[in-house]
Amino acid sequence: MSCQIKHTGTVVALKSDAVVVCTEQYAACAGCASQASCTLSSEKKDRLIVVKHPQPTLFSAGEKVNLVSTQKKIYAAVAVAYVLPLIGIMAVVVGCVTWLNNEIIAALMGLLFCGLYALLLYLLPKRFTQNLQIEITKIV
């Protein structure tokens, strides 16, 4: 059983292959019991999210929608964005220090790895994000 994560938003614009949705993002402590006396709990920002959709004309500007994702997709996105590069840079730096015994070259190779990973994500975005897309549904 997969847990779903939902956020409610308002459609603000339509593109040829996507829907732009505005959601409210609250501070992480918004659910805290002491939020009435805390100045951080009222911190709120609007966030624009572009959601790919094959038929964006099904939605209209000003319409309330749900943005839905599964916990599995979020974990996969975290892995692609944080875990894989961390493991890669650690392996490159430790490998270079072990085999070359030179920390400067190891640091430069770590930076090179980061650059190459970012370039790979830039050149092949569909390959990495194809299964991580957020789904948009109408509120009935």
What percentage of amino acids are in beta strands?
A: 25-35%
Written as H for each helix and E for each strand, in order along the chain, the element string is: EEEEHHHE
Q: How many distinct folded domains?
A: 1
Tally of DSSP helical segments: 3
Return the structural class: alpha+beta
**What percent of residues adopt helix (DSSP H or I)?**
40-55%
What's the shape?
elongated
Mean pLDDT: 85
The strand count comes to: 5
Low-confidence stretches: none
C-alpha Rg, in Å?
20 Å
What is the straight-line distance between the termini? 24 Å
Give, in spatial order, the strands making up the sheet with the most strands: 3-2-1-4-5
Q: Main β-sheet: number of strands, strand sense, barrel status?
A: 5 strands, antiparallel
Q: What labels would you give this structure?
A:
140 residues; five-stranded antiparallel sheet
